[in-house]
Amino acid sequence: MPIDPGVLDVAVVGAGLGGLYAAYRLSASSRRFRVFESAPDVGGTWFYNRYPGARCDVDSLQYSYSFSEDLQQEWVWSERFAGQPEILDYIRHVASRFDLYRHIQFDTRVTSVEWDDRAAHWVITTDQGDTVAAKWVITAVGCLSTPKRPEIDGLESFTGESYYTNSWPHEEPDFVGKRVGVIGTGSSGIQSIPVIAGSAAEVTVYQRTPAYTMPAMNRPLEAAEVAAHKAHYPRHRAQERTSRSGTLVTGHSDSILAASDDEIHRRFEECWHAGSFGCALVSFADIITDREANDRLVAFVRDKVHTIVADKAVASALASWEYPFGSRRVCLDTDYYATFNRPHVHLVDVKKDPIAEVTPRGVRTRSGEREHDVIVYATGFDAFTGTLFRLGIRGRSGVRLEDAWAQGPRTYLGIQSSGFPNLFIVVGPQSPSLVVNVVRAIEQHVDWIMDALDHADAGGITTMEAAPAAETEWVSHVADVGYATLYPVADSYMTNVNVPGKPRVFMPYLGGFGSYGDRISRVAADGYPGFVLSR
Ligand code: NA7
Asked: Needs which cofactor (predicted)?
């Protein structure tokens, strides 16, 4: 049943890791708040992405909340990289342990968020018929939460079973004896293909852009190593917070161009076996800034693919990258390349043999039709802005967020956008968000927002809004930092081009997690320069 909480101090949108932490912080204050969540439970992306093999690619002991020493001591992770069910259990546990469920209105999609200038508050409506006013809005909707439907003709005509990795059914589909087509080879495809191949009669992988992927080296965690980590948890968390990536990965500051072949090979081998693509990205200072340096790593990974995959043509197609290592999100896999040695697994390179349509019986590429009983779409997300735009946000003078951001996101510090007062974005575009450990990034943003709310309350401030000049400067700073690297070279959701019609803009902030944290803390300590505070 919809509830009517009257005028709230804070409305939070989303009950994934971000919204839940906001709820935790708000529940310790006297503020009236409510969390709106479209799903029937907490978890966000970890609620929906329950495809076979779904797994985090940041170490469990790091990809977890740091706000409670009791919580981090109590919770027992079973694997180095937790699978989706375990992460969802953890998020549910946190919601119960800190009594957060009672603040969340589930099965409720926010349909509009409109600024009322006279009353100086937001008016939020939902698909359950709620109309709620709130002084502050915190969007914690995730960067990868609105599924992207592939622009392929005939999707509806297929008479077999169709599944999307990003909205996987709760009743596990059975692939035994079935001919399965998988479209998409990002992280979701790369994680699910080996598992699907474990039971299906035949698997055909439709690859458009080959990903770079390295072995995850996932394994059960041993009690002794967990105990050793837990003994120094505060120190590890402090290191994560000041690091470039929000993790414990440390790198090298020397140039590859001055290194010997032996040393280059030694470091790359070490990273290949480390179960960390971050390790490879920082194996030399210039891997992600210099194409020649990056090419050395690409050559190393190409050799690995050719060593693992027996069929030369298949290996060549899997390693036919035309973009630098790291400029699309690198994947961590379990047996991805080796899966193509199995006789019932086939690769179709749809760059060379494009998909024409989905037919009632399968997939037709230019070379002909392949029949499938099941098609799995691992085609990704309308990332970063997709979910924000779906909220129906209208700021001052009724301006829609998607119009204000027609040429790309415009934020100050990735936290607020001019014309949208009192609205905060947790891990959205122009913040470190998806290029770092997102749980650390969530805590960093939510803590900053809570300090801003305290500051506003203490000073009788009614509105807080990014100043246009500070915003313009931040937008160009994000671009300058991004374009000084190789990250923006590739087309992907990071450059905002995986959804047709969107402008090509590099989305995350690459200035480093720790330095970004210092910067936003300084802004808070200095009384929020760059924000307009009105009484
Ligand atoms: P990604 O990484 O965006 O991957 C989507 C994949 O789907 C990618 O290979 C796309 O190829 C492919 N795709 C999308 N549309 C099509 C069509 N129409 N035809 C063929 N292939 C298509 O999403 P994921 O869910 O795998 O991973 C998202 C993040 O989750 C990941 O980076 C981790 O951070 C966790 P394209 O690149 O468009 O050529």
From this structure: FAD
What pLDDT sits at residue 1? 37
Nearest CA to ligand 1 atom 21: 184
Residues 67 and 160 in one domain: no
pLDDT at residue 3 in the model: 43
CA distances to 14, 43, 520 from 39, rounded to whole Å, are 9, 9, 32
Domain that holds residue 69: 8-146+382-534
- Ligand 1 pocket, residue 378 CB under 6 Å: yes
Ligand 1 in reach of 329 Cβ (< 6 A): yes
Stretches where the chain sits below pLDDT 70 are 1-6
Question: Is 16 near ligand 1, meaning CB less than 6 Å away?
Answer: no
Mention every residue, 6+ apart, whose C-beta is less than 8 A from residue 201.
176, 177, 178, 179, 344
Mutate which of 45, 498, 504, 507 for ligand 1? The one with the most ligand atoms within 8 Å of its CB, which is 498
Best residue among 163, 188, 277 to mutate for probing ligand 1's pocket (most ligand atoms within 8 Å of CB) is 188
At 410, which CATH number?
3.50.50.60
Q: Is 181 in the pocket of ligand 1 (CB under 6 A)?
A: no
**C-alpha 420 to ligand 1 mean position (Å):** 31
C-alpha distances in Å from residue 435, one per residue of 57, 411, 417, 494? 12, 18, 21, 9
- Evaluate whether residue 119 is within a structural domain: yes
Complex ipTM value: 0.99
The CB of 215 under 6 Å from ligand 1? The reply is no
Report field, pTM of the whole predicted structure over 0.95: yes
* Total domains present in the chain: 2
